[in-house]
Sequence to fold (379 residues):
Amino acid sequence: MTALPETEEMVDPVPGAAAPHLPNRADLVQLLTPEGDRVEHPDYALEIGHDELRALYRDLVLVRRWDVEATALQRQGELGIWASLLGQEAAQIGAGRAMAASDMAFPTYREHGVAWTRGVDPLHVISLFRGVDNGGWDPVATGFNLYTVVIGAQTLHATGYAMGLQRDGAENAALAFLGDGATSQGEVNEAMIWAASFSAPVVFFCQNNQYAISVPLERQSRVPLYQRAAGFGFPGVRVDGNDVLAVLAVTRQALQAAREGQGPTFIEAFTYRMGAHTTSDDPTRYRLASELEEWKLRDPIARLKAHLSRSSIADAAFFQSVEAEADELAARIRSGTVDMPDPAPTEMFDHVYAEQTPQLAQQRADFVAYQASFEGGEH
Fold:
């Protein structure tokens, strides 16, 4: 057997940093440097006004505050679990804001930022993690499908939906979200095969946050993830996932190509999960503190704030108003979560099918009788 050549994929241009977690910058689309400097890219021009820049900053701050509050609520026993997006805000806000109103997003269980851009109430997401329902929002009205916990399954849903758009003659696109670990799942590869074969209007948006729970990227793939798209016959692009402007430009272009019949695109948003995989995870067991500190220097909110300040696009009053709005949002999330009523036990039977079947009706009756047997009894 011929040994695979050693890859030079992982390099680290940051002086003194030991963790090899920065890609070779030659293939990384970037429009805003970690220091907040605006740069141009020959393939991804972005014309954006001051109002939109300020709106993107507001999105980033409010979504992070939502995430921080939800993490605290879980630690205090108010949520069963929470999947944090800390550090991935720019990837999600940029991708979500690139979508047209008629497009459909297919999330995993971490796309709170995308949910925000689609008008989903944070409490409707919180209710899912509190265990009072299976998702309180309307996927059709919001263009945002329900969360999917089965790793990679949403890519099949998105591809099937996109093929349906083709057959309906609709000029819309589907945006499928996945993590780096999901690229090893059979469902994802099957979805990309079908999407390529039918030139389906779907964009695969991979948030490469460096870890498939605890497995680092270098143990998942010997080549950059975006290069895998070539094997399926469609374009792949790698974007700085902590640069909201680059993500917006790249995703907008990929979605437009899909709508125009050019088929799928694979986007690898190179980012970093600064928190735990979920609140049941302990990231200190598999990564170094120095690595986290390195990535804090590339914080997506800090770099946009630096750009807004340096370019006189926003002043102190604007930043204070956003922080005040974040405080109000956190208070609403906390009170809304604590006051959230528990569902009736029989509600689990109400939405299994559009019309209740005889078998389900019998199961419900048996359940009601079983519960009644405890009332006033010596159980």
Remarks:
- Residues 50-75 form the longest helix (26 residues).
- Residues 1-21 have pLDDT under 50 and may be disordered.
- The chain has two domains: 28-338, 345-379.
